[in-house]
Each structure stands twice: as structure tokens, then as C-alpha cells.
Amino acid sequence: MSLPKKNIWRNLVAQDRVKKILSAAFSSGNLGHAYLFCGEQGSGKFAAALDLAMAILCKDKEVAPCNSCQSCIKALNASHPDFRVVFPVILDDSHKSGGELNQKGWDFIASLIPEKIKNPYSPISYDNKKLDKSALHKAPSIPVEWIKEANNGILRGSVESDYNVTIICDVDTMNIYSANAMLKTLEEPPQNSFIFLTTSNIGSVLPTIISRCQIVRFGILSEDEISKKLSEITNKPQDDIVITNTVKFSLGSLGRALSLINIEEKNNNEENFNNSLEKAKEFWKICLNGDWLKITSYIDELADNKNYIAHENFFRAMLYLIRNSFIYANSLSKNYFDEKNILENSLDLFCDTYKTQNLTNAFNIALNSLKKNGNVYIIMANLSFSIMENFNVKK
């Protein structure tokens, strides 16, 4: 590959180390055929993949992507025959016939792709998608048919460009059939084809997929980097209360910050992150008291909400409280936590790094189980045991 031009990062925010690595590979013509971008949800993995994909396909001879040539315009509109994007989606029963995607399902997926490209950091919104209510409790997943179609596009080769580019997001959410469908393509990719995979949980990615990719790790963003971007998007000052609250809860993820600020702007009480924090504090308090009847009753109340986003925000609120409490208990810098949201009645626990790590792992496992459509009641019951064990049992 030889691309004697400079790439421009139009979507990727911060991540200077990643930009330096990938820019050097691009400009020297040494870009690998398969990459696995790893990092926190919303850290910029898809934004980087999108910028690189468009740069590869761009026709401008000086800088890329130019966003104005026919190739760039087609890519931005998800109509370029040599460019495809795959990501987890929520589907309802009407999108499948005989267990496989039907035309309505394919049309629905096609309608989401331009939205994903237009807003590379924001999660897909299903508010106005007219899905069955029963589907909204499901975690997004990648249909195996979509992976097979992407494989066919890769193996077919380019149609109107010199290159063929595919982005597959959140490969950790693929089932075993989807993952296996990717393996041979990754092992023997056609010449002039590029595949960018992303994951926020590399531990759930098949080792055989990892071994076929070059790994690029994305760090979390600083509070200043996130607040600047939110200020730019919302036209609010960086010290606006909505922005400052959102930044603290984002845990270094611009994608999560955008999702949360949208919820805050809509003042949706069910998904408002302050509401999630209060529920998380109450859950923690009940678990510490050890009254199993009260615990099960509260879990019933939480699990009865069938909204996936509400459950995800609850788990992230718990992680946020654990993080704040650990920093506070160990007298670390107040610049990195929200001292109004700590678990004051159990600070001794957070002086113990071992127990804090156990709790953090437990809630990360809960989030991953939620993404795989695990039973919310069982997930929360397991978490209650983890809290009680770590509070009451010595190392």
C-alpha cells in the first residue's frame, strides 16, 4: 500500500498517542490489514476507524479524508460499495422470519448506518424507531447474517476504489457463530482490504481473532478534553452544571458523556444519571444491612424495569460510587472525583485495594453479562453477594 498523503483526524478527539501510531503507518504505506482497537466504551475507537477508512478511500492527493470528493461523500452517506460498517443493534420479532433477518430487518439496519457514521461517539438512539417494547430490554447484538454479508463484501474485493474497508464494532458481543464466520477472512484477507475491529472488553474476544490483528489501545479521556467537546456541541460554558456533572460521571468516556448529557437535557427521570446514583446508593445500603428479604424486594423493583439503558446506567453509577469512595478513602487528589457522591458508611472497605478491585471486577462482569442479555435479576443477586462478602469477609 502506498498513500503519499497526510491523513486528517476529523472525528477522533484527543488520543494523541493513537493518532501518532496510525498516522505514521498510514503515511508510510505500512498500514496493517487487520486492527483491533481496544479501550473504554466511547473512547474514540469507532471514530478512529471511520477516519482511517475514509482516508484510505479518499481521492484527494494531498490530505485525507477531504470530506468533499465523491468517495468521501458516498462513505459519509453509507453508500460506498467498498466501505461497510457493522455494529450491534436491537431488533424485534418483526425483523426476522424463520429465525433469520428478513427484508424489514435489513432495511432497519440500513437506516441505522448513516446515523452511526454521522455521530461516531453517540450510541444509536431507538427512541423513535417504533420497536416493540419487549425488544428494548435486550442488549444490542450483531446478527450473524450481517457478519456473513460483510465477509462476502470483503472477499469480493473492491468495486470502484483501489481498496476495500470494513469496520466491525464491539466484536466482543458477537456470538460464536458470528465470530467463527470472521476467522477465515481475518486469516487470509484479500489484497488491498482493511478490517478495523473494536472492543471495550478484549477479554471476551476470541483469542483466534486477537492473534490475527494488530492491537491498538485507547486510553480514557481527561475531564478537560471531554468538557471542551461537550461545550462545543451544546454551546454551553465548560463550567455549566450539566456539563460538569456529566463529565464526572462519564469516567473518561466521551461516548458515555454524550449519552448522559442527552438524557440530562431531556430530563428523563427514569434514565437520569442522578436518579441512577440514588438507586445505586440505596442498593448498597440495603446490601450492607444484609437483610435478604429487603435485598430481594429491591432487586425485584430494579429488575422490573425492562429498559436496558436504565440497567446499564445503574451499574455504571455503582462503578462511579466505588471509584469516588476509593479515591476519597485513600486521600488521593480531589481533582479526580466527586466528593458529593461517595459511600460514606463503608469507607474502611475502600482502604483495602484487594476488596475494591474485587468489587470493580464484579460490576464489570455484571455490565458484560447485561450486554449478553443475561438475566437482570440473577446479575443483581450476584452483585449483592459480592458486596456483602467484600464488606464482611477478611482477605
Please name the defining characteristics of this protein.
51% helix, globular, alpha/beta, two-stranded parallel ribbon, single chain, 9 strands, 16 helices, 9% strand, five-stranded parallel beta sheet, 395 residues, 2 domains, Rossmann fold
Q: What does it look like?
A:
The protein is of the alpha/beta class and 395 residues long. The protein has two domains: 6-218, 3-Layer(aba) Sandwich (Rossmann fold); 268-392. The protein has 16 helices and nine strands. The strands form three sheets. The protein has a five-stranded parallel sheet, with helices on both faces. It has a two-stranded parallel sheet with strand order 1-3. The longest helix is centred in the C-terminal third of the chain and has 22 residues, at 308-329. It is globular.
Please describe the topology of this protein.
Layout (H helix, E strand, L loop, with lengths): L5 E2 L8 H12 L6 E6 L5 H13 L5 E2 L5 H7 L6 E4 L9 E2 L2 E2 L1 H16 L25 H13 L7 E5 L7 H12 L5 E7 L7 H4 L3 E5 L4 H12 L6 H10 L3 H13 L6 H17 L2 H12 L4 H22 L17 H4 L2 H19 L4 H17 L3
Parallel strand pairs: 1-3, 2-8, 2-9, 4-7, 7-8
Antiparallel strand pairs: 5-6
